[in-house]
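Data availability (excerpt). The following record was deposited with the supplementary files.
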Amino acid sequence: MIDKRLLAAVSGVGLLVTGLAAPAAQAREPRDIYAPIFAQYKSITDARKKLRRKEKKGQPMSGDEYFAMAHACQYEEPASASKILTALSRSGCKDKAVDYFIEAGMRGTPEGFLGAAQKIGTGQATYMYAQMAYQLADTDTALRNDAAAEMAKLRPTAGDIIRVNAQAQSTVQQLLAANRYQTATPGATEGQLASVAPQLKWLDFKNPKRCTWSDAAQKVLQNSYAFDDRRNLPTIPAKVRVPGVKNWVTSRIIRPGGNSSNEIDIYTDFKGNWNGLTVLGLRYSFLEESDGYQATGIRFAEPVKTVAARLAASGFVVNADGSYREQVDKVDTFKYRDERGRQQTSRNIDGVITSVARKNGETLFLCDEVFYASYGA
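Predicted structure:
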């Protein structure tokens, strides 16, 4: 059965102005869409009320405004001491969020279709909206990955996929004809969905802002290497179980400074999707004869800009260009003389250190909470 909400939205396509140029697709996080809209109002609650008033009056609204309204309808201000103010701030449109997401998609904001799919959660409608988001994502690989993941998850229970795909394709063609979108890609095929890498929910951080890794991720990292004291180079690869990966994974060890170096890089290779990004594995670095240094990271296929934007939207403290960043809680400085007798100043911090950098065909995101100021580097 065709989703009634889609039929209602499609019926309005021809009523809108089609002579305007469709906006060019671009990679955006949900926050990149709704934050500029909310910034025009006193609060999210104020935005919700005024956007809904605008809709009821039939005033022109963009896809981004509908997307923001969908998010606003799911938001409620924290309870206050005043019962009256608390009641006034409550959302009365939570059941309209899906409709607003769909309308956002129909008006040139493809993230709206994915939002509708994720909000509905099950059944053919979810699959159909995810397929539409996939086709209209254009160059936004993160959006396409998320949409493919939704379809792959639902494929066994989505029923008549041929019919659902046909409806999605028909709607996409109507949107192109109405100049809501500039271009669309072919829909995801059975073969493509069968090869979709698993969703790596076990990588979800306990606290992104503090680089607090999940217990499952820490277990993988800790089991990715072993020591053999009989060897001149005691750190050796190990076989490790990675959640969602069928076979055991054998780590790789690289010594960036050669065999005479203390520095160790442990690579654990596997593939999956996390936060709309393609994961290639983990990397854990440390000094073989010291506890004073470590660097823990996830390796991605996407470029730095895409990875950094996605991470920032997920609550991580990262710079837009991926450059080295410190979130400083405490600083300790001390002076010393180098091998030539010159006075130098050393600086250690407690806090969080992050970076996103491209090297050897992959993007490495490093995220560590450090206590160098308190315990030494």
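Summary of structural features: The chain has 14 helices and eleven strands.
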